[in-house]
Amino acid sequence: MLVMTLAGQAQPAARFQPNESTVIKDSAGVVLPYLTWREMMTSGKYMLRSNAKAGAAPDFVMVKLSDSQIKLNRERFKPMESEYFTTGEAFKPFKEKDVTGQKWDTKALAGKIIVLNFWFIDCAPCRTEIPELNQLVEKYGDKDVVFIAVALDGSYEIKEFLKTLPYKYHIIDNGRSLANIYNMKNYPTNVIIDRQGKVKFHTSGYGPNTPYWIDKEIKAALDLPQ
Q1: Which of 23, 127, 188, 203 stands the most exposed, by the fewest C-beta atoms within 10 Å?
Q2: How far out from the chain centre does Cα 185 lie?
Q3: Count of domains in the chain?
């Protein structure tokens, strides 16, 4: 199976990464446009099957996965850890205001689970995961879970962006200096902090399994059945 991870900055990949010149067809043999197959791959509901023949340029066929295959793949392929945090170590706290003026002190949130997302508007992978992150807010927002997004953009740009794509996290604007505290370079980066203020989960870039594992780790932190 070929796995795609998208990030706001290119990262070395251990697996084959198809690109705009890769020939990918549907089951009827029709060549799919790049944007079409890219969206299908990032959904996590398809895989590529190689049709490589000796002496011929390689091409691939898009194959739809069954529900059981999707679940199995999500369990098998846990997102790689980011290079900015260490699982089990104390999270370096911060104090900031969000775009509504509400103050946030992560140290004062001890006893709650904090879910962070570092992102910026022009980051396509960041925008891709927002609808699924919104679903997590809807699922856990009434529990001891706080969702905070640290955006690099200014308040005006964020408010204009939210008119076209709602984002239900509490959004901190002008977050570049905050991201720099953690030497952040790749976006999106998602982090979960447990009730004791320690890093429980962290990953950079967007892959189809990322929201699934954020959900899974939140459940574990809440001691909910998987």
Answers
A1: 23
A2: 15
A3: 2
Tell me, yes or no, whether 103 and 204 share the same domain: yes
181 token code pair: 């505290």
The highest-confidence range among 71-80, 169-178, 206-215, by mean pLDDT, is: 169-178
Amino acid at the residue 86: T
Does 84 fall in a domain? Answer: no
Return the structure tokens found at 19. Answer: 């690109």
In tens, the pLDDT along 129-157 reads 999 999 999 999 888 999 999 999 999 99
Q: How many CA atoms lie within 13 A of 43 on its CB side?
A: 15
Q: Are the C-beta atoms of 180 and 94 separated by less than 8 Å?
A: no
**How does residue 45 score in pLDDT terms, banded at 50, 70 and 90?**
confident
Residue 23 pLDDT exceeds 50: yes
Q: Distance between CA 15 and CA 216 in Å, rounded? A: 24
Question: What is the DSSP code string of 15-45?
Answer: S----TT-EEE-TTSPBPPHHHHHHHHHTTS
Residue 3 makes CB contacts below 8 A (sequence gap 6+) with: 15, 77, 207
Q: Residues, the chain, total?
A: 226
Q: Same structural domain for residues 55 and 134?
A: no
Residue 72 has a CB neighbour count (10 Å cut-off) of 12
CATH number assigned to the domain comprising residue 158: 3.40.30.10
- In this prediction the pTM is 0.76
Residue 136 CA to residue 215 CA, distance in Å, equals 7
Residue from 96, 84, 92, 91 nearest 170 by CA? 96
Closest CA to 12 of 216, 224, 208, 204: 204
